[in-house]
Amino acid sequence: MGGGGNTPALPPPTGDGEDDDDEGMLRMSFLEHLEELRSRIFKALAGIAIAFIVSLTFSSQLWDFVCQPAVQALKTLKFEPYLVMIEPMESFNIIWFKVPIICAIFLGSPCVLYQLWAFISPGLYRRERRWAAPFILISAGLFILGGVFAYFVVFRYGLTFLLSIGQGNNVKPMISMSHYFDLFFNVVVGVGLVFELPVLIFFLTLLRIVNPVFLLNHSRYAILAIFMIAAIVTPTPDVVNLMLFATPMCMLFYVGILASYLLVLHRENRRFPWQKVIIITVAVLLLLAGVLYLAITKYGYKPVPHWPFLIR
Asked: Could you tell me which of 146, 169, 178, 143 has the C-alpha nearest to residue 244?
C-alpha cells in the first residue's frame, strides 16, 4: 500500500504506423506557408533565369531549330522557304528574347518541378516523400517528351495542312515571324503541359483526392475532355491531326490510372496482379494487330519506315 513509486511506466511509442507518419509531417502556420511559397517561386524563377542566360548564347542556332518546321512545310508545298519580318524590332524580339525563353522553360522545368515538390512535401507523410526523385524525373521527362512530340509530329503536320489549304487558289503564303512563333509556342508548350496528365493523376491520388476506381468510372468524361482540349490545342481543324494529339493523350490518361493504382497498392501493401495485366496486354495487342490487318488488306494502307508508318 502506498507504493505509488513502484507503478510501472507506460512503454514509449514505437513510432510505427500512421502516428509515425504524422510525426514526419511538418506543421506550418499560414504566414509560414506564404513565406515558403514566395521562396520557392523565387528559386524557380532563378532556375529559369539561369537557363535563359545559357540559351541566350545559342539564340541563332535555336531559331534555326524553331523555324525548321516552317521551312520544311514551305519546301514541301513548293513555296519559298522564308519567314518575313514585318516590324524592325520583330527579329530581335523573337530570336534574342522569345526563343531563349521557350528553351529556358524546357531546360528549367526540372528546377521548377523540384521547387513545387519541395513546397508540397511538408504536407505529405514521410514515406510519401520518397517519391521526390521519380516525381521530378518523370514530370520533367513527360514535359520534354510532349514538346518533342509536338515539334516533330503535331506542329509539323498541322502547319503543312494549314499552308496547303490555299494552294492552287492563287494564294501565296507570307508568314510573319511573330505569328509563326506564337503558334509554335502555343502548340509546343501546350502539348508539353498536357503530357503531364499521368503526373497530375498520380499527384491527385497522392493527396487522396481521386482513386483508380473513381477514374475508371468517369473515364468517358475524361476522354471527352481530352478531345475537347485536343480540338483547342491542335492547330488544324481536320480529324487526322486531332487524332494525332488525342490518341496519345488517352493512352497517357490510362497510364496515369495505372500509376494511381500502383500507389494505392503500395499504400495497402498489396502485390501487383501481373497475370491479369499480361492477359489484358495480350488482348489489346491482338486487337491492334487485327485493326492493322484490316487496314492493310481491306482499306489499302501500306506500312512505311517513317511517320505515320501507315499510308494509303
From this structure: 146
For residue 310, the 8-state DSSP code is E
Contacts of 80 (CB under 8 A, 6+ apart): 74
Separation between Cα atoms, residue 55 and residue 62, nearest integer Å: 8
Counted residue by residue, the chain has a size of: 312
User: d(Cα 53, Cα 51) in Å, to the nearest integer?
Assistant: 5
Q: Residue 18 has what pLDDT?
A: 47
Alpha-carbon span 117 to 113, nearest angstrom: 6
pLDDT digits (tens, 9 = 90+) for 16-68: 444 444 444 556 666 777 888 888 899 999 999 999 999 999 999 999 999 99
Mention every residue, 6+ apart, whose C-beta is less than 8 A from residue 37.
119
Distance between CA atoms of 196 and 36, rounded to whole angstroms?
A: 24
Closest CA to 224 of 197, 194, 250, 198: 250
d(CA 308, CA 306): 6
Q: Identify the three-state secondary structure at position 140.
A: helix
Q: Give kind and range of the element (H or E) at residue 123.
A: none
> What residues have CB less than 8 Å from 175, skipping those under 6 apart?
70, 83, 84
- Return d(Cα 157, Cα 150) in angstroms, integer: 10
Of 142, 71, 56, whose CA–CA distance to 102 is shortest? 56
pTM of this prediction? 0.73
Closest by CA to 185, choosing from 288, 126, 99, is: 99
- Residue 102 cell numbers, joined: 521557350
Distance (Å, rounded) from C-alpha 168 to C-alpha 57? 42
